[in-house]
Amino acid sequence: MPTETSPWEEHFGSRENQSKAAQLGMWLFLGSEVLLFTNLFVGYGVYRYYYPEVFVEASKHLAAGWATVQTLLLVTSSLFVALAVHYIRQGRQFLTALVLLVAMGMGVGFLGIKGWEYWKHWTEGALPGEYYRLEDLPVQGGSLFFTLYFLLTGLHAVHMLVALGLLGWLVWGAVSGKYTAEYHIPVEVGGLYWHLVDVFWLFIYPLLYLVE
Amino acid sequence: MNPSAGSSQPDITYLNHETTVSSWLLTRDHKRIGVMFLVLVILALLLGGVFAMVLRIELLTPGPTIISAMTYNRMFTLHGVTMVWLFMIPAIPSAFGNFVLPIMLGAKDVAFPRLNLASVYIYVAGAGLTLFGMLWSGADTGWTFYTPYSTTSPTAVAPILLGVFVIGFSTIITGLNFITTVHTLRAPGMHWSRIPLFVWALYGTSIIQVVATPVLGMVLLLVCFERVFGVGLFDPARGGDPVLFQHMFWFYSHPAVYIMVLPAMGVITEVVCAFSRKNIFGYKMIAASTFGIAFVGFFSWGHHMFVSGQSTFGSGVFGVLSMLVAIFTAIKIFNWVATMYGGSIDLKVPLLYVLGFIFLLMFGGMTGVAVATTSLDVHWHDTYFIVAHFHYIMVGAVLMAFLAALHYWWPKMFGRVYPERWSFLAASTIIFGFIVTFLPQFLLGNLGMPRRYYQYPAELQWLNVLSTAGASLLAFGFSLIAVYLLWSLRYGEASAANPWGSKGYEWHSGSPPAPHNFTEAPRFEREVHDYTVPEAPRAY
Ligand code: HEM
Ligand SMILES: [Cu+2]
User: Fold this and answer.
1) How far is B177 from chain A (nearest CA, A)?
2) Residues near ligand 2 ion, CB 5 Å cutoff
3) Per-residue pLDDT for B7 more than 60?
4) Whose CA is nearest to atom 43 of ligand 1?
5) What are the beta bridge partners of residue B517?
6) A138 contacts B240 by C-beta, under 8 angstroms
7) Angle at CA A133, nearest 5°, toward A130 and A135?
8) Phi and psi of B39, rounded to 5°?
9) What is the pLDDT at residue B535?
10) Nearest ligand 1 atom, CA B381
11) Which of A111, A189, B316, B511 is 20 to 30 A from B46, alpha carbon to alpha carbon?
12) Distance CA B219, CA B147 (A)
């Protein structure tokens, strides 16, 4: 009988099996996450094909320089998350928590920049649909660009928030000694999730910010 | 007759080892979760059935009968939404799949029992939201939510969309759980080539669930945003393209019809073997055609858009790809029939439903090929012909499979036998009632009666009356089933461990099974559905 305190679940038969199941489950979940974004990417493709010039012009309203900083932040944070997995496999709980905290800090920085950028769009009137007030761009196409911009970055930001919560929970688990060199499935799959959220950004960044 | 009857049954079962309400509500046992889903989807079926009867009664006369035109629009929308998302999609996988899949694989539970429990509550939350929208003011867009009407309709479209979005997560979790369970929790001896075909069917379904459902979720969310924030994605005034919605919607919703029909085909395979006492003919072909259907299903969505301004070439390609599905389906039908051929047929009620299934599936499939022919579809599109086509498959075939599963696994789930004669009467009524309901609709459609219309020319009345009469027979048949099944729970004769003498692996456990399915570790020593080797009775 599994006790409430043991993380090993009896129905898996073996520990490797539990770990394998968790990984597979997470990969499937990541697959479905990718498909959640596809509509937006498809929508982007279609409307960029309809309104190529407007998309180029609209993209100039975005802070590409800051987006590059954001990209660097996320890529580095992924490195730290990978380190966390490395450390926990050796059972170094404190170091694990530390590198996870660093990664979280970068994530927060990312969201901070995003928030600032949103605020700028707000004042400028670069908003989706009905709220669109930019004058130098036609509504047809211009409002669509910003609709897609807010949907893509917004959905991504929501994922960032979830992923930050997840890392926070992992930090707490690592500090309270729940994860050990033997049992660290949550760190591994949680890390996978963080990487995925990163990868989404790696697609969003060029599509929105580097349009030519 | 019953080789394994009378073998030892467990005294402590999943039903009686704990009986408090919270032991049900907080259970992680896949069997209890399956039973909860069964109750929920049957309630959904009831609700959808009430909506359907209102529609059919309204159509008794050419003019207004009992409700107003606006109410009529709401009724067909709510009927479609309830039947498709609250009943059809979760029905077989979440209820019967949850119950038997782990047992068939010799596992103690699914891979993620807690997530499995969560899927129940997510379903309840989504269904609640949908019901809330229905009670608030309903929706009148049709279950397809086509833009731009769905973005401007004054009815409560948003909560219903959100409800369906939420239910999608329940489906995704179920799919994820099944795939992981198949990969990691097979008992010793359960090689890939021994996996029961019902499990293969669920596996194929699960892939579609995981891959397609998020796409639907997102597009419904986009319609919601469009309504609430006016984002303009599908709004031509802001440069948007309403037809894009149709692509995104059908990219999910066409594969979704295979989410409904593949598990049904899996049930049929199990039942055919059990009641023909014969090894399945063409195990590999059946499993492979499941994946063929799942795969092709992703590339045929455009057949819903022949008249939406799609290029003729595109329509042709989509038409041909759609017809491929019929080939895979035909393979299965040949295999079922070949399995029955020369078997020692035991015509119990589950098999009666199978015969109904095969007949209706063939009709539905052949009319599918007919409407996939672009030039013919221009005539039939958006008429009752389409309504008849998909009801033949979704209601006819899938519901037959649902009822077959319900009767076949009833002793397994509850340890009781249902009354044979009453069930025969109900099954015959339903099959006959079904044909009376929907055959006239093919004729109506061909005569040009459009779907989703409140009124019709007087000369079409007799066919409509016929259809309503059939629907009443259906309602009668269902009520009969409800009564005798509930009766049997209390007064029914106790079942033997394997009342059908089936070789399905799930009958290795007791009926009803012990809390963790098996009292000793199961081992699989023969091929699945193998009736050539005699077997000592056993129940772990
Ligand atoms: C041989 C396989 C099949 C083919 C070739 C086929 C073809 C088609 C075509 C071409 C249409 C569109 C007709 C129109 O709107 O003008 C259609 C509609 C439909 N089919 Fe099928 N089909 C097949 C099997 C199925 C199955 C297995 C199901 C369900 C389990 C199904 C459910 C539906 C539904 C729900 C619609 C109508 C959607 C709506 O507009 O409300 N079909 N089918
Ligand atoms: Cu279709």
Assistant:
1) 7
2) B 254
3) no
4) B368
5) B514
6) no
7) 135
8) -60, -45
9) 65
10) 16
11) B511
12) 11
Q: Which amino acid is at B59?
A: L
Which residues have C-beta within 8 Å of that of residue B21, sequence separation ≥ 6? none
Q: Is the separation of the CB atoms in B478 and B443 below 8 Å?
A: no
* Structure tokens that stand for A99 in this block: 């590198």
Cα nearest neighbour of A128 on chain B: B231
Beta carbon of B322 within 6 Å of any ligand 1 atom = yes
Coil vs helix vs strand at A156: helix
| pLDDT tens track for B59-77 | 999 999 999 999 999 999 9
pLDDT confidence tier of residue B295, bands split at 50, 70 and 90: very high
Nearest to B266 by CA among B246, B289, B243, B236: B289
Per the structure block, which two tokens stand in for B325? 């599905």
CA torsion through residues B478, B484, B487, B493, sign:
negative
Distance in angstroms (rounded) separating the CA atoms of residues B403 and B406: 5
CB B184 to CB A35 under 8 A?
no
Whole-complex ipTM = 0.91
Rg, C-alpha atoms of chain B? 23
Query: What are the tokens at A80?
Result: 């730290």
User: Hey, what are B16's tokens?
Assistant: 């009686």
* SS3 state of residue B242: helix
Whole-model pTM?
A: 0.93
State how far the Cα of B452 lies from the Cα of B437, in Å rounded to an integer: 16
User: Measured in angstroms, how far is the CA atom of residue B84 from the centroid of ligand 2?
Assistant: 13
